[in-house]
């Protein structure tokens, strides 16, 4: 049974500002490869972090709204954890 989810992903875009759109679409394709069906991609822009963690001072926030099976969320998280361009990821089910 497919459900609607929202995934907030923070991209480590240091040195990649010109290829940012390509990075956003490549993350969406990785998610689709693991069973997600994209509805909307919202780029929220670059924001500074409150403190420097892992030598990164800020990131590019992207909100992915998609449909997927609950089991696919674990697969997506595992796959995106291996991507060095992704700093942080958080998923929640929409009502």
Strand order of the largest sheet: 2-3-1-4
Count of DSSP-assigned helices: 2
Overall 3D shape: globular
Might you state the CATH topology name?
Alpha-Beta Plaits
Distance between the termini: 14 Å
Largest sheet: 4 strands, antiparallel
Catalogue the unreliable spans. none
Q: What is this entry, summarized?
A:
The protein is 27% helix and 49% strand. With 95 residues, the protein is of the alpha+beta class.
SSE topology:
Elements: E1 3-11, H1 20-33, E2 37-53, E3 56-68, H2 70-81, E4 86-93
Antiparallel strand pairs: 1-3, 1-4, 2-3
Describe this structure in words.
The chain has two helices and four strands, in the order βαββαβ. With 95 residues, it is α+β, with helices and mostly antiparallel strands. The chain has one domain: Ribosomal protein S6/Translation elongation factor EF1B (Alpha-Beta Plaits), CATH 3.30.70.60. Strands 2-3-1-4 form a four-stranded antiparallel sheet, with helices on one face. The longest helix is centred in the first third of the chain and has 14 residues, at 20-33. The radius of gyration is 13 Å and the shape is globular. The protein starts with a strand and ends with a strand.
Please name the defining characteristics of this protein.
alpha+beta; 95 residues; single chain; Alpha-Beta Plaits; four-stranded antiparallel beta sheet; 27% helix; 4 strands
């Amino acid at each position: 049974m497919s459900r609607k989810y929202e995934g907030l992903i923070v991209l480590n875009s240091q040195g990649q500002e010109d290829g940012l759109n390509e990075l956003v679409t490549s993350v969406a394709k990785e998610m689709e490869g693991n069973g997600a069906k994209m509805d909307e991609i919202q780029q929220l822009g670059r924001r500074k972090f409150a403190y420097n963690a892992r030598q990164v001072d800020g990131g590019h926030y992207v909100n992915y709204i998609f449909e997927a099976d609950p089991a696919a969320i674990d697969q997506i998280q595992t796959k995106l954890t291996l991507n060095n361009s992704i700093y942080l990821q958080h998923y929640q089910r929409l009502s």
